[in-house]
Design a protein that fits this description.
Strands 14-13-12-11-7-10-9-8-15 form a nine-stranded mixed beta sheet. Strands 3-2-1-4-5-6 form a six-stranded parallel beta sheet, sandwiched between helices. It has 15 helices and 15 strands.
């Protein structure tokens, strides 16, 4: 059965939109676009500068953080920020589920005495919980770690509300979300507010050094590359009593493409982001395949996706991701050059460069823990020194590159970057989103039947 997510056109994605207009078009149910811009207007009218619009040079001034999405990564991200930064506080928490608030609050307070100050009325639950944080004038920085499907519009609204943002990856899962990200990036630059993203490898020393050496030409010109994110599986959450269809899909978000973008976007976007960095931007086209053999009933995810990406200069990059129990894992990127090859492995596994005879020319260990923290240090430093980092576009490009590969694999067609970013009408977010509502039966893509739109 074909996946409606790749075959049913939605509205609101065909022309460049302001962050607010995009939100309003895509998520009428929230009816928050006007409120969001009103807060910016109010800030300007009252002559109170947006907190990002002026340097916060005085490191005595505390930076107050609101967390949206208090799950595994949300807890990790706030821990990273409070560990690496001085004079920052966790000041508000929002999550769909009330029980998550207390759990993150307790865990964080235990580890970071003096850096957690969340009053009871700053603990928000429910589908509009994020909005309370955006409307809170006491919050300077918002960390987003919800399922990815919500990311583009939440980030856009945060930018409209004048907040500095940390956005976990991927930042979008479809062309409609990509356009919202591009508008939000532009708007943040105009506001003078920061957007740092959870692509930690961009700040991991062995990745930075290896890619610097590649760009300096240490082993000649780049000819081709491989990217692999292969593992033995991922979690699946069973339905709990009294959950609506939508509640259950959001709870089990990994397995629904409108929320996760499938494994190529949710997980392997790290490799894709690394490759876009190495190649200097996104690819020109994608052609791919894949399938589904072991997923539980009710999952829309494929088990494996393989894509040939062609980057400018006719450089071919072979991509593979897989989550199949009992298979051999591999999380690496190998770049083949005229004078040798460079391999950069995920996590702490390090990087090396060899010549054409296999003789090692350079190697370095990896420290992903330091990279996770560095992104939060860079964010807060950039806010404090009045030079806010805005890096959403690069991460949106990588997220969109993942969506491009998925579109090619799901439909069995060769898909160009130009088509996917300019002509595609694909918008996976449910048109009439209702957290308490019903959803169509989960369906998965079948190449040749699933339409390219
Ligand atoms: N950078 C990395 O290496 C890395 C690692 C892990 C996860 N992530 C990313 O972090 C994000 C979250 O992943 P996770 O593993 O923490 O998932 P999770 O399921 O553990 O947590 C998600 C949380 O968001 C909440 N939530 C869902 N919808 C919400 C909404 N609309 N508003 C408010 N809260 C909502 C859920 O209740 C849950 O507590 C994903 O985008 C994932 O890709 C990044």
């Amino acid at each position: 059965m074909s996946n409606p997510s790749e075959s049913s056109p939605r509205d609101g994605e065909s022309s460049p939109l302001s962050a607010n207009a995009a939100n309003t078009a895509r998520r009428g149910f929230l009816k928050v676009g006007t409120a969001a811009s009103a807060s910016v207007v109010a800030a300007l009218a009252s002559n109170r500068p947006l907190r990002g619009a002026e340097p916060q040079n005085n490191s005595e001034e505390p930076v107050r953080i609101g967390l949206v999405g208090a799950g595994g990564r949300g807890a990790g991200a706030i821990n990273d920020s409070l560990t690496i930064n001085e004079n920052v506080t966790l000041s508000a928490i929002a999550d769909l589920e009330e029980r998550k608030l207390e759990s993150v609050l307790k865990g964080t307070a235990k580890r970071h005495e003096g850096k957690v100050d969340v009053a009871e009325h700053k603990m928000h639950s429910g589908i509009d919980a994020y909005r309370r944080i955006l409307d809170d004038p006491d919050i300077d920085v918002v960390l987003f770690a919800t399922p990815p499907g919500f990311r583009p519009q939440y980030v856009a609204e945060a930018v409209d509300a004048g907040k500095h943002v940390f956005a976990e990856k991927p930042t979008c899962v479809d062309p409609a979300g990509y356009k919202i990200c591009l508008s939000a990036h532009e708007q943040a630059e105009k506001n003078g507010t920061a957007i740092v993203t959870g692509t930690q490898y961009r700040r991991q020393t062995n990745y930075m050094e290896a890619i610097k050496k590649l760009h300096e030409g240490m082993i000649g010109d780049i000819i081709a590359a491989t990217m692999r994110y292969c593992s033995s599986g991922i979690w699946f959450r069973n339905r709990q009593p009294d959950m609506s269809d939508t509640q259950y899909q959001v709870y089990n978000w990994m397995h629904h493409i409108w929320l996760s973008g499938d494994q190529i976007a949710e997980q392997a976007v790290h490799n894709i982001d690394t490759m876009n960095w190495i190649m200097g931007g996104p690819p020109e086209s994608a052609y791919g395949s894949g399938g589904r053999f072991t997923r539980p009933e009710g999952s829309e995810m494929w088990d494996n996706v393989e894509v040939d990406y062609v980057y400018p200069g006719n450089r071919l990059v072979s991509f593979m991701c897989r989550q199949i129990p009992g298979t051999q894992g591999d999380n690496s990127n190998t770049i083949y050059c005229t004078g040798g090859q460079c391999t950069i492995r995920g996590g702490n596994s390090g990087a090396s460069i060899v010549d054409r005879d296999g003789k090692e020319l350079w190697s370095m260990k990896g420290d992903i823990g330091a990279a996770y923290k560095q992104e939060h240090k860079d964010l807060i430093d950039s806010v404090r020194n009045g030079k806010p980092i805005v890096e959403l576009k690069a991460t949106a490009d990588s997220s969109m590159t993942a969506a491009l590969g998925r579109m090619a694999a799901y439909t069995g067609k060769r898909v160009t970057w130009d088509f996917a970013t300019k002509e595609s009408k694909l918008d996976l977010f449910p048109k009439d989103f209702d957290i308490n509502g019903s959803r169509p039966e989960p369906q998965f893509a079948v190449p040749g039947k699933t339409k390219l739109i």
